[in-house]
């Protein structure tokens, strides 16, 4: 039995918020009940928050629900980044979206995620984060979608939350981090969850997080600098080597930051796999989607566009962990790469609208 899931340190399950309590808790945060007018009133934004020029879809856009920040702690949330955890509210997301022509953001919880060694707490965090995101999507149709969080490595809790997120909240996909409780994606412990996601044909967005085994290897160096891209690569290799990619062909995966170091290493990885008698790893890697967050530069795009075509690349801002000026700068860098107009159109919105049909 997984000690982290049902060990002696577990607490009694926290009951889920009632709908009335949930809406009441959001009322003071600028997200009221479903009935009523514009929840994020910002000067210069039209009633539905959309401008005619908006065409981008941002698939790497984070939220920091106040209850999540309160329970986890801003210092814990900020550890992966040298800049710490930003202050955030939904109005700031709308401001940066409208300033940069972003029509829709598919939001998610970033590192460190929701697992801190206690299953009941993780289930509670998953529920409040998912309902918060669903409320944003309901208040502003077309402006926000969301990837639902799961309380992995708690498999039973994750299966229950998966059902709730898909059937009740109508999420746009599931958001995972690269490892949970020392286990990378592809570990057999997660098989039942991946099998169910495959049955439901969900889109799975994967964000990196440092594994305990890799923490503080270089003291003073933030994990986001080096370990995050390597963590994405380890997760992808775990999914390939375990057969999860092959067993779950109806999951559409999105990997952050242009796939970490995988595009640069793919020939080495596939070559070594072939020597080990494991053939065909490159095919699922070429079926995955990859986002541009922190990677809109020639050093990252060169290897990426040798692995996949522009039809497998999605725009990602990494807001608010990338501040508003960085979002504008990343778009400028993307457009300065000299890509054909058709490739830019794919990356900036066509691919995402194909993947998330309700934003078509």
Can you tell me about this structure?
The protein is an alpha/beta fold. It has a single domain (58-359), classed as Alpha-Beta Barrel (TIM Barrel). It contains 15 helices and 10 strands. The protein has helices spanning 3-6, 19-27, 66-72, 74-78, 90-99, 119-139, 155-168, 191-200, 227-241, 244-247, 262-275, 282-287, 298-307, 324-335, 341-355; strands spanning 56-62, 102-108, 144-149, 173-177, 179-180, 183-184, 203-207, 252-255, 289-291, 313-314. Strands 1-2-3-4-7-8-9-10 form an 8-stranded parallel β-sheet. Helix 13 (298-307) links the parallel strand 9 (289-291) and strand 10. Helix 6 (119-139) packs parallel to helix 7 and helix 7 packs parallel to helix 8 (191-200). The protein starts with a helix and ends in a 5-residue tail after the last helix. The model is unreliable at 1-53 (pLDDT under 50).
Order of secondary-structure elements? HHEHHHEHEHEEEHEHHEHHEHEHH
- Unreliable spans are 1-53
Return the CATH architecture.
Answer: Alpha-Beta Barrel
Discrete helix count: 15
Average pLDDT level: 85
The CATH H-level homologous superfamily: Metal-dependent hydrolases
Largest sheet descriptor: 8 strands, parallel
Q: Please report which band the strand proportion falls in: under 5%, 5-15%, 15-25%, 25-35%, 35-45% or over 45%.
A: 5-15%
- CATH fold-type name: TIM Barrel
> Count the strands?
10
Q: Between the first and last Cα atoms, what is the distance in angstroms?
A: 44 Å
